[in-house]
Prior knowledge:
There is one protein chain. By secondary structure, the protein is an alpha+beta fold. It contains 13 helices and 25 strands. The longest helix is centred in the middle third of the chain and has 16 residues, at 264-279. The model is unreliable at 1-30 (pLDDT under 50).
Amino acid sequence: MMHRLAAPLLTLLLAAVAILTPEVAQAQSETGLTVQVTVDSSVHEAPIDGRVLLMFAKNDRREPRFQAGAGVSAIQIMGKDVDGLRAGQQVTFDSSVFGYPIKSLDDLQPGRYYVQAGVHLYQTYNLSTGHTVQLPPARGAGQNWRREPGNLFSEPQWIEVEGGPQTIDLLVNQVNPAIEEPEDTEYIRHVRIRSELLSKFWGTDVYLGAHVLVPYGFDEHPEARYPLMVFHGHWPSDFGGFRTEPPDADMEPDFSERFQLAGYNRIQQQEAYDFYTQWVSDDFPRYLAIEIQHDNPYYDDSYAVNSASIGPYGNAINYELIPYIEEQFRGIGEGWARFTYGGSTGGWEALAVQLFYPDFFNGAFAACPDPVDFREFVQVNIYEDENAYYYPADFRMVERPGHRDYLGHIQGSVRDYNLYELALGTNGRSGDQWDIWQAVYSPMGPDGYPMPIWDKLTGEIDGDVAAYWREHFDLVHIMRRDWATLGPKVQGKIHLYAGDMDNYYLNNAVYLAEEFLESTTEPYYGGVVDYGDRAEHCWNGDQENPNAISRLRYNTRYLPIILDRIEKTAPPGADVTSWRY
């Protein structure tokens, strides 16, 4: 039975969150702060399609763009879409423009602010579906709008907001430079291929990249062919966590707020160097490990599946990129010798590709995965709840938390993160977490953009879109629905790990996955589900080390299980020796 808010309360709810629509709301007053943003012709002459952003911070420790975010530490941000904006034209920010966390410039308190404007550039895509959309292209920074090459910004400056009628002018005269491509080394090689499948979908050339960690002795053993480990996760600028030199003795130690550790930067370098020393040791197994670059116009990562709005990334990665890598770097090239692992986004991907391509991989290690059951979608049950932002209640509205620390202290709500994304971009173009889930899981709308799972302003859930999510991307539902045929193909391949104080409540969905897997005996899944006591996000099954350390050891964490599975499942005559030099 669906939980329903009483009609009078729902009216109050909608009134309480009736934040002005992003572009066309009426001004609340005739007076107040106005900011005029102008793009200097020295940095961009052609007409601009994109999103103009305006940011206010209370400190100058970093530029405002690098402070932007949701939750308790959020700075003020607002945005306006522009189409064909020319250099010298003014873009006006006044009380009619949507903002987060304060909805209107009229409500910005008098005081001193560190202010910056920016322009996130869009490109027009003529999709194979017949739709035309404007989206930010991937330009080398993993869809990080703060650093994406070509994006424009003003120099940050201090201003005094007086509290009455006031106009401030900002000149956008800085442009992000191109990012240097990483160079090949003895152990790390880089590949980039044009995807036929994705280029056809997007109507323009689309490329996939990968960083390949080759084994010790790779060039000296041309006869060897290697198993492949696919490390899924967010966009990598290079292969991470691998360093051929000891930690930099001159590095000034930092402090990790998350882990409350001094010198965490040194710890990370030491772990990376330790991995290298293992990698080149005589008794360490030889295999290929890859990290994939599949940033796209919606996010730093495609989620490695075929999607209505993002395109056939699953097929492109598995049928175009991985075979190319195996051919170039002497991979064994068979399903029994491929494994996939990752955490968070990468954890969801690892499980998803194992389920969607069950014969292509021989094991998935999914740590702290994004919600694998949409009955616990960061505490939202998208099938039974009517509103994503508020718990059902009769007399008061209580927001659903979206982020906590290991003690349960709340640092942001589901509503916070979604309104922040709405300030960054309309039509799901924020490039952030909730919008990519929507872009991957939703059907394409009549305008060519992903259909919203819920109204960004009110949180009201669309039941038809939720039903589409369930049939296409709810991994636990898919396992339950298809287990008769899927179960035999993935038996012994599923490994799930979550901290029981995951910052994003992702352990809740893992509980539901465990409930299904452990109660299903025909066939029994034969894998692992494990939890870390008080462990936060990125816990990967290591019961011996703190999360701050274990999260740096993904590339070795699952290797003993992988080697054991290879020995037990390799078909007769398979090459299980050439790579064991």
